[in-house]
Amino acid sequence: MLNIGIIGVGRIGRVHAESISRLVPEAKIKAIADPLINDDIKKWANSIGIFEIYDDYNKILMDKSIDAVLICSSTDTHSQISLDAIAKKKHVFCEKPIDHDVNKINKVIDALRDSKIKYQVGFNRRFDHNFQAVEDATRNGLIGALNILKITSRDPAPPPISYIKVSGGIFLDMTIHDFDMVRFISKAEPVAVFATGAANVSSEIGMAGDIDTAAVIITLDNGCTAIIDNCRQTTYGYDQRIEAFGSLGQISISNDTNSTAVISNSNGIIGEKPKYFFLDRYTEAYISEIKAFITSIVNDTPVLVNVLDGLKPVLMGIAAQTSLIEKRIVTIKEIENKYYLR
Amino acid sequence: MLNIGIIGVGRIGRVHAESISRLVPEAKIKAIADPLINDDIKKWANSIGIFEIYDDYNKILMDKSIDAVLICSSTDTHSQISLDAIAKKKHVFCEKPIDHDVNKINKVIDALRDSKIKYQVGFNRRFDHNFQAVEDATRNGLIGALNILKITSRDPAPPPISYIKVSGGIFLDMTIHDFDMVRFISKAEPVAVFATGAANVSSEIGMAGDIDTAAVIITLDNGCTAIIDNCRQTTYGYDQRIEAFGSLGQISISNDTNSTAVISNSNGIIGEKPKYFFLDRYTEAYISEIKAFITSIVNDTPVLVNVLDGLKPVLMGIAAQTSLIEKRIVTIKEIENKYYLR
Amino acid sequence: MLNIGIIGVGRIGRVHAESISRLVPEAKIKAIADPLINDDIKKWANSIGIFEIYDDYNKILMDKSIDAVLICSSTDTHSQISLDAIAKKKHVFCEKPIDHDVNKINKVIDALRDSKIKYQVGFNRRFDHNFQAVEDATRNGLIGALNILKITSRDPAPPPISYIKVSGGIFLDMTIHDFDMVRFISKAEPVAVFATGAANVSSEIGMAGDIDTAAVIITLDNGCTAIIDNCRQTTYGYDQRIEAFGSLGQISISNDTNSTAVISNSNGIIGEKPKYFFLDRYTEAYISEIKAFITSIVNDTPVLVNVLDGLKPVLMGIAAQTSLIEKRIVTIKEIENKYYLR
Amino acid sequence: MLNIGIIGVGRIGRVHAESISRLVPEAKIKAIADPLINDDIKKWANSIGIFEIYDDYNKILMDKSIDAVLICSSTDTHSQISLDAIAKKKHVFCEKPIDHDVNKINKVIDALRDSKIKYQVGFNRRFDHNFQAVEDATRNGLIGALNILKITSRDPAPPPISYIKVSGGIFLDMTIHDFDMVRFISKAEPVAVFATGAANVSSEIGMAGDIDTAAVIITLDNGCTAIIDNCRQTTYGYDQRIEAFGSLGQISISNDTNSTAVISNSNGIIGEKPKYFFLDRYTEAYISEIKAFITSIVNDTPVLVNVLDGLKPVLMGIAAQTSLIEKRIVTIKEIENKYYLR
Hints:
Four copies of one chain form a homotetramer. With 342 residues, chain A is of the alpha/beta class. Chain A has helices spanning 11-23, 39-47, 57-62, 75-87, 102-112, 129-139, 161-166, 170-173, 175-186, 203-207, 278-281, 283-298, 307-326, 332-338; strands at 2-7, 27-33, 52-54, 68-71, 91-94, 119-121, 146-154, 190-198, 213-220, 225-231, 239-246, 250-253, 262-265, 268-271, 330-331. The first copy, chain A, has two domains: 2-117, NAD(P)-binding Rossmann-like Domain (Rossmann fold), CATH 3.40.50.720; 126-283 and 312-338, Dihydrodipicolinate Reductase, domain 2 (2-Layer Sandwich), CATH 3.30.360.10. In chain A, helix 1 crosses helix 12 (283-298). The longest helix of chain A has 20 residues, at 307-326. The mean pLDDT of chain A is 96. In chain A, strand 2, helix 2 (39-47) and strand 3 form a beta-alpha-beta unit. Chains in contact: A-B, A-C, A-D, B-C, B-D, C-D. The interface between B and C is medium-sized, with 36 and 34 residues.
């Protein structure tokens, strides 16, 4: 039985806590920590059998009976907590992104070098049934050599402007998932990035120096071209689709819906809109990623999303941001060189 | 070059005339006849190169240069004109049904016996791309032994009550196409029929002694069960679907639409309604059936829908009507015996 | 906190046990009973926190701390255990069907009369997201007055012949779910039934006196016609579809799949087959029905599938069986009269 | 009655000839010209009523009774024949592209200035039912302000390498249709182009200096971003899809198929592949564009695809080609300036 500590019990921390307490018999949540702990959180924690509740995450790190921590706090704290947890020999599940600053990610990479610590990054979409179907078909050669990979990822509604301002920009906040998907499905590394976009949805987002609509082309080292389009707002819900086109065929996925119901009437033949909320869309994926993390510790197998998988999409995001601003193609090598990588 | 005469130039007669004049180079429409000939018809006929225009169809039958006639007049005249045309050795394309009265159909069958006359019945759906895909897959063994055959056939709106009154009832007017489809796809003959229904759409139809909604189960001599449902009215258009389920799989067709466009918005994911009007839905089928008729004459090959194919659905319709009224299963044998068949 | 006892821990009993232990915090499984208890079952039970394990279900009924029982034993024991449980004032969740014998169901109905016992029948499909979408749309008037209700329900593979022999026949074993769906969606009661079918899949099933393929038409007291087709075997998985057609439109559902993936290659445009296994297809429904049962006890609200809902489909099944054998339409009244009902 | 001459009766010239002779009663093909005239062509021409057959197109231009010509010869002859025809006051339908050389197109533009000649360019996809559904919905505000426009256009198989070598490159040969679609649907003008691609399908194409797979991003002057992906080869047929995403929703089209048949078996749920051949896919569009041309002459209305619509996609193609080679974003202004436009 693994003992788990959860650092940060906002929305996503609680999702993971409930997954573990209900569905992962091999693990037990021994403690949680959150600087904003209150009676509601305590009540919720007790209801799922958690009774050690701290406002200082070091209490968790100092508990020698705790094997692993989940870092679900705000992004700006991820790298420091990661370093602290690694120092205390805890296995780490860290929500994405590790950081927006490549140097800080590099410190985590350095700290992990030669350790036996499992460090998994929270790219939940790798555990989604639809995306896995694409990855599986591609890996197993069903579509032959991958040629064009198209990803559409659009949110139902933009986050508050206060969030936008600290988000690191659309590429590091939203597209980062798609950058990860590009690597996950293609099994290739990015060579160069071209990005464009606009604040078409919200002028407020534009005034905050960000965009809400983006198109990105990425050339990969296997000759494949990846195309991403994003938008912060749709009228029809959360739009998450992929097409992988190869020499032997194409695999594509469409959105999940709450039912397969189709109504035919004088307005048309009307199917359900996609699941609206990302927690509904990725419910099973959140459970699966946590199960996979626990399994990799229990069985001492490599994690399925390692720290380098956490780094690469950040490099791609920085390249995209640079491309957008400087209106030119940007190579990943250029970004890497900037941070003295390799 | 075949010379054709068309008897009856209402809606469907004109459709056939235009198909031949534009798309069948092996045939020429030499003359048309219609008791209600007027200036508009003359103008239309001239515009497609028809200049012999009569009010008496015997003028056509007496023209020795005419090889074949299309009987597109009202149903009650079909059998007599058929007999007259056969007497004059004309090949005949007769719109469905040959008659509602089995005895009259039998006379046509008798007249054709030992003749070399091509006699094709206008079951246009046998020439539809979708229904042909089902027939083709079934005939070629793609679904194995047929087990359940389901046909949905619903009109967008009921015809005028005046039409209903002379229609012969829903089974002889509307379901008759589906009865033909059952035989076309199953390659089996009906054994027994159970039918039920109601006037749920229009009380006026009910008062006219007819129903507007029907469900029919037919057992076939190959052990397959056919299920038909009909309605005289939908809110979403002309609904024409088939599912053929067999030991190796199922083939199903959905409706045709004017485009593949799908709109996603706050109301849902909205596809186009089916093509609304039967002439739009079956445009190509009407052309193909006429081409097939011409081809069978030119090449001296059997017609694809012969006079017995015209009889059988009428027997099924009478069986269904009897089943509805007497609330019991009715065998085709019983109906045949009534008319001293076989 | 409700205490629950589970009587019968075969496949479905264990599904319910796991649902309650993981996902229903208001309830605790205090004990299980099964005549075939063994070490594997004990180990499994312990692993989810169940430590009272009996081979005699009376041990559960005599435990005054137990509030409710789930009857998941073989069908032939359902009615007697129901009577015993009711005598001990336990709330009852009884797997479907209560019995094949109407007289035995009537005894349960009598025992429940004037009691405050919650008695829910395990028609799990009422809790399925797809079927609920149909029921919801129909109840809320989205399709207007229901006119034709079509249900396709086909199993991926037939059960062992040993099961077939004690199953009560296809109508009481398989179609019974569809009979329930007819009532659930139409909110109407059956008037008359016509059924036909054959042993087309397996001659062994035929020799056992059963059929494996069935078609049923049911007329309802609101003028609607329901059409059911069943088969014990498909090549493509578990086929569970409904179409509800009304005066304002139609709502239809298609099958659930494991992903939305579509592969396009030289063989066609290929989507996933339906979920194959009923426990996969109805995973959520099994959870929801148990949650609903617990909720109705906790809140003292009526159960959503009561004992009469358990009776009616059995009457429909007997009517269908009679129709098949006697090749005639059978009214529900006739079946009811036979059992001196009403 | 308009008299038409057709210059060039290869595949597409014959398609137009048959459309006019069968389906455009307002026009008559008086003559055809082709340097490679032979007995087969003569026989075919006679069969549809064409008896004036020349090897020199000037014979057509000198015939004063001829009102309009269709230029269906090889691309390198389009601009000169256009100039000659304009000089003889013929209305012109010119297959796309007018030329690969902007200077030559400019000469045609100059020749047309202040004339009353109708000059239509053969961008047939503007007349396709699916693309028109997208354009129609977009123009009518159904999707609000256009934000992202995605076009997938892939051929079933590459043309012969001999064709590739004179094609002008993928952007001027294949993507040019998509460039036209971008303008047709967005009603906006391109500002800048980024293109990338590779010879992934055929190394022979690569050795010929061309690519077979391309991805293009175009920024438009209304703030919309267009994304095009192309490939010279698929295993599943001719892939022609569009998604237009706007502030109020999205409209998307999928491919046309020969039937709506779906087969369900142990391999999956299998729909038909897209129509394979461009002449099958765009049969109706080819008819409609010719009808539109005739109509614009008869009614003296503007043509629906004018000479500037012929120029712009060539500029976009040159920009894309430049972007690919120089690995940078290229503005349309830069290309225009190069040719002293504006």
